[in-house]
Amino acid sequence: HSALTQPRSVSGSPGQSVTISCTGAGNNIGSYDFVSWYQQISGKAPRLIIYDVYKWPSGVPPRFSGSKSGNTASLTISGLQSEDEAVYYCCSYEAPNTLVFGGGTKVTVL
Amino acid sequence: EVHLLESGGTLVQPGKSLRLSCATSGFLFSSHAMSWVRQAPGQGLEWVATITGTGTFKYYADSVRGRFSVSRDNSRSTLFLQMNSLSVEDTAIYYCTRDESQSASDQPPPGSWGQGTLVTVSS
After folding, report:
1. CB–CB contact B44 A34 (8 Å)
2. Which of A24, B28, B39, B47 has the fewest C-beta atoms under 10 angstroms from its C-beta?
3. Where are the alpha helices (DSSP H) in B1-123?
4. A-B Cβ pairs (cutoff 8 Å, strict)
């Protein structure tokens, strides 16, 4: 049981946009703008693609965008590409001094 | 370039102890909080522990508090995780991570990740 809830899978065709939701609670996403997103390609270590809800680490393309409303954060991948096929995890700060992850969403490029 | 290299993962019996290490390079180690994140086989990510840059503050997930201890040697740019009273539920790949220092959070999320080291707890 994960503290943050994500859909198990989403899919889209190349060039389309897909959005992944991440639902938490008032003591994590609802109270802090410290949501991050990770991409994990099969067999690889996770890679940070969004932090503090919408900020990009160096080298991450702007096709990845993040947002938040209430207790739910979202990751949108625009212009879907084959190399975007991976599992995506959300993560949030939760007081006191804890990080909680979502269960992961498998993105399939059709 | 940030480089994180975990070591120490192995097969260990339930109830035993194990110490993981993470050798780092490419950044000023003492200026960054470091964390361990684990991933059970075929499962999602689970935050395990965080230690601040000076080592003054340490934070743990409920699932490991009292059994695991995170530490660091800033003179050797190395992070450690001492794991005691291991159970089969601790079987996972353990990732060493460096904080995303650009975050405004007092506890920044993991930014850079190592490749992980596999800990298998089994009799």
Report:
1. no
2. B28
3. none
4. 77
